Amino acid sequence: MAVRVEGLHHVYGSAGFAPRAALRGVDLAIGDGERVAIMGPTGSGKSTLVQHFNGLLRPTRGRVEVDGMDLWAPGRDRDHRLAEARRRVGLVFQFPEQQLFADTVWDDVAFAPRNLGLDEDEVAARVERAMALVGLDPDLGRRSPFSLSGGQMRRVAIAGVLAMMPRMLVLDEPTAGLDPRGRESLVELLLRLHREAGIAVVLVSHDVDEVAAVAERVVLMRDGRIAADGPAADVLTDAALLARCRLNPPATGRLLGALAARGVPVNPRRVQPDAVEAELVAAAAYLPAAPGSAAGRAGAPPGGDQAPRHGAAEDVRHRGPAEDGRDAGGAAGHGGTGSGDGRGRRQAGRGEARS
Ligand SMILES: Nc1ncnc2c1ncn2[C@@H]1O[C@H](COP(=O)(O)OP(=O)(O)OP(=O)(O)O)[C@@H](O)[C@H]1O
Ligand SMILES: [Mg+2]
Predict the structure, then answer these.
(1) Ligand nearest to the Cα of 221, by number
(2) CATH H-level superfamily of 3-13+20-249
(3) What does the pLDDT read at residue 295?
(4) Handedness of CA 113, 203, 214, 6 (dihedral sign)
(5) 109-122 pLDDT per residue, tens
(6) What b-and-e string marks burial along 254-289, b requiring 16 or more CB atoms within 10 Å of the CB?
(7) Which ligand 1 atom minimizes the distance to the CA of 47?
C-alpha cells in the first residue's frame, strides 16, 4: 500500500482569521500503480489532501502513512520518514513552471537528485531518463527554462519531480492553462508514465473528460470529506452524485446514454475514450447508413441483418438520416469499409481489456 490517510483533519489557522477546517475526517488508501482522480468543487479540500500524501502539511488530527511508515509518529527518525515520503511520492503543484529557477533545463531537473547527494554520473542518468520520460529533447537541456513554451516548461517541472524516481506522481490540476493540444499530450504523458514506468498517478482535476481518459478510480470530495470513491465507470456515470459535487458527466457518457435510451445496444457505462469509441463503432451496425455512403449503396448497414437487440433502434432507422441518422449513418458508412471495421475490432479489444 503506497499512501494511506486515516481520520485526517486539517484546520488552517492564521492570526486574526477564524480557523478554517479544510479536511474533516478523510480515510483513503491508494495502492501502488493505481490511476486515481480526485475531483470536487472549489474549496472542497483536494489540494490540502494531496499535500498530506508526502508530508508537506502536518495533520491537525489523524494519520498519514507512506508504504506503512507513519509520517508524523514521534521519534528521532521522523525527519528520515518525511524525507523518504517526499522521495517516494512526487507532488507536482498547480502551475509548477512558476517554481523553475535554474539557469538551464538540465540544472533544474538535476536539482532534486543533487540534493539527495547522488554522484554526478547517477544525477546525469536520472536527468536523461526524466527528460526522456516527459518527451523533452536532450538538446533542450542547455537552454534556459524560461525560453521554453508553457507546455515545455511544465514538462521540465514534471521531469524535476520524476528525477527523484518517485513511485507515485501526484499532480494538482496539471493541465490548467494549457491549450487543447497541450492538455491532450499531458494526458498521454501520464498514461505513458503509468504504462512504461509503472508509476501510480493521482490526478486532481475539474475536467471530467480528462479524468475519464486517465483514471480507473475516482474520488469525489465535498466540504472536506469524501463523498464517493469508486471505479471511474461508476462514479462518472452517476449523474445525481456528480451534480451534488457540481460536476457534469463526461460528454461521451451523455452520448452513449442518449443512444442507449433510444434502444441502440451500447453500454452507457463506458467512460474511457477507447472504450467509448469501441461502443460507437459496434453500435454503427445498428444505425442507418447515410444515402450515398458505401454501406448505403450496398443496401443495408453492416450487421443490419442481425436485427437490433432493442426495438427503439428500429425507430431510429425509420426516422432516417435527416434526423438522428446523419452522424450515425456516417459512422455506419465507415464501418462498412475494410479498414474502419478492423480498427473498430482492435479498439473494442483494447477497450474491453482496459475498462
Ligand atoms: N493556506 C491556507 N490558509 C487558509 N485557508 C486555506 C489555505 N489553503 C486552503 N484554504 C482553505 O481550505 C479549504 C480547502 O482548500 P483547498 O485549496 O484544499 O481546496 P481545493 O479543493 O483544492 O479547491 P480548488 O478546486 O479551488 O483548487 C478552502 O476553504 C480554502 O479557502
Ligand atoms: Mg486546489
Answers:
(1) 1
(2) P-loop containing nucleotide triphosphate hydrolases (3.40.50.300)
(3) 60
(4) positive
(5) 999 999 988 999 99
(6) ebbbebbebbbbbbbbbbbbbbbbbbbbbbbbbbbb
(7) 22
Cα gap 61→6, rounded to integer Å = 9
Ligand 2 mean position to 274 CA, how many Å? 29
Residue bearing the CA closest to ligand 1, atom 7: 12
- Where do the domains of the chain lie? 3-13+20-249, 252-354
C-alpha cell at position 143: 537552454
* The pLDDT of residue 306: 45
* pLDDT tens per residue, range 76-106: 999 999 999 999 999 999 888 888 999 999 9
Cβ atoms within 10 Å, residue 7:
12
Whether the Cβ atoms of residue 296 and residue 289 lie closer than 8 Å to each other: yes
**For residue 42, which ligand has an atom nearest its CA?**
1
Report pLDDT digits (tens) over 221-272: 999 999 999 999 999 999 899 999 999 888 888 888 888 888 888 998 898 8
CA of 172 to the centre of ligand 2 (A): 7
Whole-number Cα distances in Å, 20 to 44, 64, 77, 229: 12, 20, 31, 24
Pocket test for ligand 1, best of 10, 17, 42, 202 (most atoms within 8 A of CB): 42
Task: Please give all residues whose beta carbon lies within 6 A of any atom in ligand 1, as ranges.
Answer: 12, 20, 22, 40, 42-48
Lowest mean pLDDT of 139-153, 175-189, 299-313, name the range. 299-313
pLDDT the model gives residue 294 = 67
Give the whole-angstrom CA distance, residue 126 versus residue 76.
30
Residues 62-82, mean pLDDT to the nearest whole number: 96
Enter the pTM of the model. 0.81
Residue of 44, 60, 245 best suited for mutating to test ligand 1, as the one with most atoms within 8 Å of CB? 44
